[in-house]
From TrEMBL:
<comment type="subunit">
    <text>Part of the 50S ribosomal subunit.</text>
</comment>
<keyword id="KW-0699">rRNA-binding</keyword>
<dbReference type="InterPro" id="IPR018260">
    <property type="entry name" value="Ribosomal_uL22_CS"/>
</dbReference>
<dbReference type="Pfam" id="PF00237">
    <property type="entry name" value="Ribosomal_L22"/>
</dbReference>
<dbReference type="GO" id="GO:0019843">
    <property type="term" value="F:rRNA binding"/>
</dbReference>
<comment type="function">
    <text>The globular domain of the protein is located near the polypeptide exit tunnel on the outside of the subunit, while an extended beta-hairpin is found that lines the wall of the exit tunnel in the center of the 70S ribosome.</text>
</comment>
<dbReference type="InterPro" id="IPR047867">
    <property type="entry name" value="Ribosomal_uL22_bac/org-type"/>
</dbReference>
<dbReference type="InterPro" id="IPR001063">
    <property type="entry name" value="Ribosomal_uL22"/>
</dbReference>
<keyword id="KW-0687">Ribonucleoprotein</keyword>
<keyword id="KW-0694">RNA-binding</keyword>
<dbReference type="InterPro" id="IPR036394">
    <property type="entry name" value="Ribosomal_uL22_sf"/>
</dbReference>
<comment type="function">
    <text>This protein binds specifically to 23S rRNA; its binding is stimulated by other ribosomal proteins, e.g., L4, L17, and L20. It is important during the early stages of 50S assembly. It makes multiple contacts with different domains of the 23S rRNA in the assembled 50S subunit and ribosome.</text>
</comment>
<dbReference type="GO" id="GO:0003735">
    <property type="term" value="F:structural constituent of ribosome"/>
</dbReference>
<dbReference type="GO" id="GO:0006412">
    <property type="term" value="P:translation"/>
</dbReference>
<dbReference type="InterPro" id="IPR005727">
    <property type="entry name" value="Ribosomal_uL22_bac/chlpt-type"/>
</dbReference>
<comment type="similarity">
    <text>Belongs to the universal ribosomal protein uL22 family.</text>
</comment>
<protein>
    <recommendedName>
        <fullName>Large ribosomal subunit protein uL22</fullName>
    </recommendedName>
</protein>
Amino acid sequence: MSKEKNPPRLGENEAKAVARMLRVSPQKLNLLAQLIRGKKVERALADLEFSRKRSALDVRKTLESAIANAENNHDLDVDDLIVAQAFVGKDMVMKRHQARARGRAGRIEKPFANLTIIVREVATQSQA
């Protein structure tokens, strides 16, 4: 007697990619997640290409991975994909100390974040 198999959490027309342990604060990473949320993947890749943020490269790699997962694992059409969800989660925080005046120590926190991107295939309406 075993448990029932877990139902799939994604729809038939969805694919996802997760980047873990990104060395950037979740607040800064969320700015880039907001930038691409709800856009077509071509437009989102172009926006990330010309973004001046340091973590735009990590977000772009994760988005390209989600697109590759959609194409290879789920047989979805790349031209019809949009970024359905892009959300950020907290990960661990490294704690360090820096010497301060009068023999004291200041605490330095170096946060890490997780990024999840879900792409969805939408039916395109034919131009007549």
